[in-house]
Amino acid sequence: MLVSKIKNKLPKKFYESLEFNKFRPSQEKAINAGLLEGKNMLVCSPTASGKTFVAELAGIKRILEDGGKMVYIVPLKSLASEKADEFKEKYTDFGIQTALSIGDPDSSEGWLSKYDIIVCTSEKFDSLLRHNIPWLKDVQTVIFDEIHLLNDTNRGPTLEIIITLLKRVLTNVQIIGLSATIGNPEEFADWLDAELIEDKWRPVELHQGIFHEDKLKFLKFKDDKPISKTVSDSALNVAMDTINLGKQALVFCPTKKSAEATAEKIADLINEKFNDDLSSKIMGSAGSATRQCIRLSKCVTAGTAFHHSGLLSKQKKLVENGFKDNKIKIICCTPTLAMGVNLPAFRVIMKSLKRFTGRGMDWIPVLEYHQMTGRAGRPDFGDDFGEAITLAGTEKEFKFIKEKYVEGDSEEITSKLSVEPVLRSAVLSLVASGFVIKLDDLIEFFKETFYGQQFGDDFGFRLKIEDAVSSLIDFGFMKQTDNTILPTKIGRRVSELYIYPDAAHDLIEGLNKMNTDFDNIAILHLIASNWEMYPWTNIQKKDYEWIETSVEEIMDKIVAEPPNKWDWTYTAFLKKCKTCFLMNEWIHESNEEFILDEYNVPPGELRNVISRADWLLYGASELCKLTDNLAKVNQINKIKLRVKNGIKSELIPLVRLRGIGRVRARRLYSAGFKNVLKLRTAKLDELSRIIGKAIAEKVKEQVGQKIIRES
Ligand code: ADP
């Protein structure tokens, strides 16, 4: 379809800004199905086939014509930043303001009311809804990117509740779901009340191959290709073949450890040195270069890299940009990269299609396979095709991969809302934000969820919701009189704080048990044990002994009862304790290198622990105010500051100043500038020598002193 066909349906400036003259198949189908007339859409098509632009067509048209807002919801913060940048670049000239909202979950973000496009994660939007955002009524288009994640146990329920709620409260909203290929698109579209748009068109052809018996066997398009066997690991041979072709590859590995080891082995095989610049940037990317930093920078020198959640965001960005600039030829990554930023490659190599699931090694879902293969082929770089390669050890495995993944259908999406803690959280958020006040309404609401559609006839359906209500009443988060259910003050706060009710209940019980003059380790252990901190720090065999010994030393200070050694919860208990000791190490100013060596926790993972702990400590302090624990607030707030900054208590006054973190605070303290008074009387030059001139000036201004410049 020619773009000119819809000239009259788009605002002039939007139409004139379009840089292409023909619509892609999924776009054409969506337009014909009523996209520009406000119909809900479920678009299922491969990566880079033009789905996002379907959403933009509808959303931008409505913003320009009616002044309504467009909310664009993505699964990951990194994706949200990328999308927001893209929209800013494209639409700011139209007078359209784009906001990125991924921060503090305990905020109604009043500033967003001025913006036309709001890009956020589903968790952030959920938390905004819990704060009764006044601009909700102005939302006219909501886009759910990667909507098939409704099938995901962790992310799915939040998405499902948001969609149900929006369908209910915004009668005029246009919902557009963007999805990979799924097994039950009709059922899903029916629930969304959406037109189903399915299309298989890709901007470049996808050649799927299985590496078996030293050959890349393509199942369509081309002949088998022999690959020289340099080493026994097939993934390495295929990666080296990619480099020899002058191309780039993403190697998806099942674990962080395997991603690192694979990148290092490829670097050894390349055995050349270039990229000195990039490599030194990596070395300088953390406060102090850790063992991980050194390993990454060595890989980068040879043109490979690893990429996983253990890296700092700065390091990930350097790796991503290095790949885009073709300085890095191979990235060995964990599967999250497939869902994250837009980083296509000529070849995608899937080292293993099995993953550890807690019940042993299981085959990954077909949906996940498609997500990874979606990264193959770089249309913007003129590739005619991309290759997605899996590895088969045996003939049987070859047949299995071919049938299940290459030729098989994706899984059906099923609601994951019935998991009890999840259901309780959804019930509390609906009641606490006032969307529902009658038990019957609550049941009606859940009938409208995908869960209700899929399992609504189930005898246990009503019972499950009533159970959730009664647990929340037991927790003290809700009250019921006949058919009316209302939140308590604490319940409302728990919902706003965005803590799962079960986790908040454990937190409150622990806070109640703690003495007023509690030891710091008590609150650290309470926080570390909370299941909002899941997954806890991993433990290895060698860790058992030292953790058990250390636990004995803190036993009389913490509120938890340790389980018996033969209890199935014992290992989890030790993991929680290790997380607690790790946090304690951090607030005693151990550096990241030490923590990596002693705890086997890389800097990126440490940051994750810190940010979750920081959030829970904030929650704990807020909940203390409502539960007769006011006397504990001060100490918790101090610990929170220490956890956030990784400092001993003596540095607290210094890190309160903007621009001063753990390293600068320690330098100032060691030089005798131990408090604000000392900083006020200090000479600017003296401070500049310690923390640099720009920061020294900032500090001086903050301590309320005019800068005295020395001649
Ligand atoms: P998806 O969301 O399916 O991954 P996008 O909508 O982001 O795909 O589109 C991928 C790329 O194709 C973008 O750079 C976009 O500008 C471009 N694009 C979208 N629609 C068209 C079109 N009709 N013709 C040419 N390029 C297009």
Explain what this protein looks like in three dimensions.
This protein folds into five domains: 3-198, P-loop containing nucleotide triphosphate hydrolases (Rossmann fold, 3-Layer(aba) Sandwich); 205-406, Rossmann fold (3-Layer(aba) Sandwich); 420-487, Winged helix-like DNA-binding domain superfamily/Winged helix DNA-binding domain (Arc Repressor Mutant, subunit A, Orthogonal Bundle), CATH 1.10.10.10; 501-646, Orthogonal Bundle (Sec63 N-terminal domain-like fold); 651-702, 5' to 3' exonuclease, C-terminal subdomain (DNA polymerase, domain 1, Orthogonal Bundle), CATH 1.10.150.20. The strands form four sheets. The protein has an eight-stranded mixed β-sheet, sandwiched between helices. Helix 8 packs across helix 9 (256-270), helix 16 packs across helix 19 and helix 16 packs across helix 20. By secondary structure, it is of the alpha/beta class. It contains 32 helices and 19 strands. Residues 20, 22-24, 27, 47-53 line the site of adenosine-5'-diphosphate.
DSSP strand tally: 19
- Give the distinct bound molecules: adenosine-5'-diphosphate
The major sheet is characterized as:
8 strands, mixed
Mean pLDDT: 91
Spatial arrangement of strands, main beta sheet: 10-9-8-17-14-11-13-12
- Large-scale geometry: globular
- Based on CA atoms alone, the radius of gyration comes out at 27 Å
Q: Which residues sit in consecutive blocks of at least 5 with pLDDT less than 50?
A: none
Number of domains: 5
CATH class of the largest domain: Alpha Beta
Just name the CATH architecture of the largest domain: 3-Layer(aba) Sandwich
